[in-house]
Specification:
By secondary structure, the chain is mainly α. The protein has two domains: 180 residues, no CATH class; 79 residues, no CATH class. The protein is globular.
Length: 318
């Protein structure tokens, strides 16, 4: 196990360095969140079919503008079926298709699992750990096999269908798209039109996911209102009242009292408490406290490899 860990250390350090560099480059390009973008100059031609304005009711206005993605027929029958349904207007199928395609964009984790499989197989480990290792190896092989039949432009099509589902109001798709599951998959897409469009849409899309009662968005919004520690957080203006209200909301959903506020924010407590109660009433009436834990959603490829056995398929929320 020590040898395996030693092999993984350089790769982990490189991955961290790449992520930090990407984050710094993004921060250099990102606009100030509190300053609206300058109006776009008038164009001589109509906007592309899937370009949208950054408005609160974007899903209702733009769903009809999304056109089927063009390209060769899919070789994977399951993906082909999802594509046919998505192109016919099935937003749940579009969400699932987008997630499935984006799993195939970066297969490095699966390849690393298989690269270390032989060494790990010779290492002494408890039976439970051995079973987990073998299950992960099996998942890695399955993921690589499925992605051999993915379209060559898996990223473009994955982004297209995930965004299509988000614009149609699918809560998980709105959350995944806002979080950057497509444009931030490996920090290599920051010079693309898709990235710029995501920056214009992401903050509003995360808010819409929250208002749809999608629990994973609570944590991301709590962080976004508190600081600028992630790309999506950098697009949402900090708001100490809303940040505190999110913490109080988590406490209410978990059936626990939140930690006391910082002294400098004590005066905000009445407004934050009222806001948390309103959010619980308006957006999470079906959630019965106490929640044992707030659900978290892994990006597609990591979920395929490391999700718990009882985790449901993507985009399967009611």
């Amino acid at each position: 196990m020590a040898k395996s860990s030693t092999r993984l250390l350089p790769a982990a350090l490189i991955a961290i360095a790449v992520a930090l560099l990407g984050w710094q480059l993004w921060r250099a390009r990102a606009p100030e969140p509190s300053r609206p973008p300058d109006p776009a100059p008038a164009a001589d031609k109509a906007p592309a079919a899937d370009e949208i304005p950054d408005t609160a009711d974007a899903p209702a206005q733009t769903e009809r503008k999304i056109e089927p993605s063009r390209g060769p027929a899919y070789r994977n029958p399951q993906l082909a079926d999802l594509k046919q349904r998505a192109d016919s207007g099935d937003s749940r199928a579009a969400c699932e298709l987008g997630v499935d395609l984006l799993r195939c964009v970066d297969l490095t984790p699966a390849e690393q699992v298989l690269a270390n499989a032989e060494a790990n197989s010779r290492t002494q480990m408890p039976a439970e750990q051995r079973a987990y290792h073998e299950r992960t190896v099996g998942r890695a092989r399955q993921l690589l096999a499925e992605c051999r039949n993915a379209p060559e432009d898996a990223w473009h099509q994955g982004n297209h269908y995930l965004r299509q589902a988000a614009l149609a109001g699918e809560p998980e798709a709105m959350y995944r798209y806002a979080r950057g599951d497509s444009v931030l998959a490996d920090y290599s897409r920051m010079a693309t039109p898709e990235f710029d469009r995501w920056r214009a849409e992401a903050g509003n899309m995360l808010q819409l996911s929250f208002e749809a009662g999608y629990l994973p968005s609570v944590f991301d919004l709590m962080v976004a209102y508190s600081d600028n520690s992630s790309p999506i957080a950098g697009l949402i203006p900090n708001d100490p009242t809303k940040a505190r209200a999110m913490r109080l909301l988590v406490g209410r959903l978990a059936g626990k009292n939140a930690d006391p506020p910082e002294p400098r924010y004590a005066a905000l407590e009445p407004a934050a408490a009222a806001l948390a109660a309103q959010w619980q009433r308006d957006y999470f009436p079906a959630v019965k406290p106490p929640l044992q834990r707030l659900p978290r959603i892994m990006p597609g490829g990591f979920a395929t490899l490391f999700a718990e056995d009882n985790a449901g398929p993507p985009c399967s929320q009611p």
